[in-house]
Each structure stands twice: as structure tokens, then as C-alpha cells.
Design brief:
This protein is of the alpha/beta class and about 350 residues long. Helix content is about 40%, strand content about 10%. The protein has 15 helices and six strands. One of its GO terms (biological process) is mitochondrial translation.
């Protein structure tokens, strides 16, 4: 599968630092692992690594088996501090949203194309009932064509109408508007039969924080009507906006479950910046991201070596972060972790999905 990574940029600051010896990095890990405020180190990374399956190293080098990767991800998260984020405005917004959903003709659920399952609210279908739904996989530019096709096939088999979109550039937004109107066309047919005047179609846009709901609306309207920013929790109130004469859109704050029981999914939310920063330890999350990258054939260990000029001898994410911290940030593991997460979010390792459809 070809990588869609942008051309590499020169990084003289990385080249100018001497290579850190493995023994020094491990000593630093032992010294610093307990110094990260509020964090729990990846304890298996050093002392429990002998308990990993015997084929772990082999599978990480030969390619990615998505089912095995999910199993390992669950294993990696067991010893970490649970990721939970439920700001006060979400509870209020959830209550208001449930009331507004009763008025909807069609609901547009927006998910992150990199993690469509992790950004699926477990109660959404029960809230919607029999209402017509359109699924939008936003940030389609951040995954490969093969990943896009795999998800399109998966949802088509379930009879779910999917629109792939890029809310930043406006790709897919016009198709989304046309599809919403067509699905709700029966509303005015029924109204005319009752002798009532036609009215605009009402479409609610729902989804997790920071998946791009407000950006999609702004692109549809071709003007900035809803606040949008590259961080979760910007939209805090429900807001109706009119799209032409035929469509009314409801922008809603990101809605999360009160408790996230699937911690593997929660880690993916953190990696993709779809959950508040205060909910997780950045070094733990970046360490898991490193281990995931080594398992994805589109990235692999080589993408990390090329970018940071650091060997990944032991396939351990936390050790890699400590090496990077010593090399670039005077031993600050948090800064090193932020660098890795931001590089992933900006596509510096290529545009990568962190999920594939289940079989």
C-alpha cells in the first residue's frame, strides 16, 4: 500500500545531535519514568517485556494484522491511568440534544475517518430510533485510498449511507447537502398531503468532539457561522443555522459517553486529538502511538528512524520517547511526546488510519 506522506522536510536540528546509546536511554527511562506528573509509565515496556507473546517482534516487523494489533493495544492500556473526559457542558448539551433530535428529519453523524469505530457513540443509534441517518467520515484526506475503500465497502454492506469529507477544504460538503435534502424529501410530501405549507428540512449534525462538525457547516454555508478550532470542546451550545431555503442545520457540541469503557478506543481518541488533553498522560499515549506505528506497514520502524534519527532497537515506545527527550528536549519526556503526537496529526509519518473494518 503506497504511503501518502508529504515530501520529507530537512531537519538539520535532528541531524546535529549525537546518537544516544541504548544503555543511556534505558537508564534515563528508569530515572524519569516516575517523574512524569500524573502519569503511569508503560510498566510492561521494561520489566514485563518478557511476558509478551513470543511472536510479537516477528509480527511487528512482517506487517500489520489488525486483529492482533487491537489485542495488543488492549494489553498495553491495562496498566495505564484510565482516559476519561466529561466536562460539565457535555451533560447539559446531551440533554438538550436529545430534545432537539425529536424535531429532526435526518441526522448527520460525523466521525473521524482515521478511527470510525472509536468515534462512534455507543448510545447514538438508540437516541435516533427510526430517523434517517447519514454517516460522514471526515478528514478523508488523512487516510489512504485503500483505507477509504475498505470503510466504504464495510458501511455499504450494512446499508449505511456514507459521505467522505474534508471539512477544512470543503470536499464532500455539497454532496452531503444534496443527500440530506433527498433523504428528507418525504417530509414535505406528507405536509402537502395534509394541506400544510412546505418547510426547510431539519438536519442535526452530531458526533464526538473535534471531529469537524462545525467546519463542515461553515463549508456548507461558505461562511464562518459556527466556531471551529483544531481542539475538542470549542462548540458548547446548540445552534441552528439556515442553508439556503431548503435546509436548516443544527450544530451541536461534541458528545462523549460519561464513562469510556473501551480504553483502547480512548487511547485512539487521544492520539487523534478527539478528546481533551487533560484526560490523558501525553507520554503514555505517545508511547503507544510509537508501538502502533511500528506495526503499520505504511509507516513502520523506518519512518521513526528517518524522522528522528533514533534507532528503535527494542520496539519499546516509552524508551523511544526517553531517547528523543534526551536528544532534543533536555530530558523532558512530555515535550518529546507532544512532538511525536503532533507529527502524527500533521501527517509526517504518512496519512494513516488507526482502525480497519472488523471482519
Amino acid at each position: 500500500m503506497a504511503s501518502l506522506a508529504p515530501p520529507p522536510h530537512p531537519r538539520p536540528s535532528l541531524i546535529s545531535y549525537p546518537q544516544i546509546k541504548k544503555t543511556s536511554a534505558i537508564r534515563a527511562t528508569l530515572a524519569l519514568s516516575n517523574s512524569v506528573p500524573g502519569g503511569t509509565p508503560l510498566t510492561w515496556a521494561l520489566k514485563d517485556k518478557t511476558n509478551l507473546p513470543s511472536d510479537w517482534r516477528k509480527s511487528s516487523l512482517e506487517g500489520s494484522d489488525w486483529e492482533n494489533l487491537e489485542s495488543d493495544l488492549n494489553h498495553w492500556t491495562r496498566s495505564l491511568r484510565p482516559v476519561q473526559w466529561y466536562p460539565g457542558h457535555i451533560a447539559k448539551s446531551e440533554k438538550e440534544l436529545k430534545e432537539q433530535l425529536k424535531l429532526m428529519d435526518v441526522v448527520i453523524e460525523v466521525r473521524d475517518a482515521r478511527i470510525p469505530l472509536a468515534t462512534s457513540h455507543p448510545q447514538m443509534d438508540s437516541w435516533l430510533g427510526s430517523r434517517k441517518k447519514i454517516l460522514v467520515l471526515n478528514r478523508e484526506d488523512m487516510i489512504s485510498t485503500a483505507d477509504r475503500n475498505a470503510w466504504a465497502t464495510f458501511f455499504a454492506r450494512q446499508g449505511i449511507k456514507v459521505v467522505f469529507a474534508n471539512g477544512q477544504l470543503g470536499m464532500g460538503t455539497m454532496r452531503l447537502g444534496r443527500l440530506a435534502k433527498s433523504l428528507a424529501a418525504t417530509v414535505n410530501i406528507k405536509r402537502r398531503a395534509k394541506g400544510l405549507l412546505p418547510r426547510p428540512v431539519r438536519a442535526g449534525i452530531v458526533g464526538y468532539p473535534n471531529v469537524g462538525k462545525s467546519s463542515l457547516i461553515n463549508r456548507l454555508l461558505k461562511r464562518r457561522m459556527c466556531p471551529a478550532a483544531a481542539r475538542p470542546g470549542v462548540t458548547r451550545e446548540l445552534k441552528w443555522v439556515r442553508f439556503g431555503k431548503d435546509l436548516e442545520l443544527l450544530d451541536s457540541p461534541g458528545i462523549l459517553p460519561m464513562r469510556i469503557s473501551d480504553q483502547a478506543a480512548a487511547i485512539k481518541l487521544a492520539i487523534c486529538d478527539d478528546i481533551g488533553e487533560r484526560s490523558y498522560d501525553v507520554a503514555d499515549v505517545a508511547g503507544i502511538l510509537v508501538q502502533m506505528l511500528t506495526r503499520l506497514p505504511e509507516a513502520g520502524s523506518e519512518s521513526l528512524r528517518k524522522r528522528y534519527r533514533i534507532d528503535l532497537d527494542d520496539q519499546c515506545g516509552r524508551v523511544f520517547i526517553e531517547k528523543l527527550a534526551l536528544q532534543l528536549f533536555n530530558g523532558d519526556a512530555n515535550q518529546a511526546a507532544f512532538r511525536i503526537l503532533n507529527d502524527f496529526r500533521k501527517g509526517r509519518f504518512g496519512w494513516l488510519a488507526l482502525e480497519r473494518p472488523p471482519k
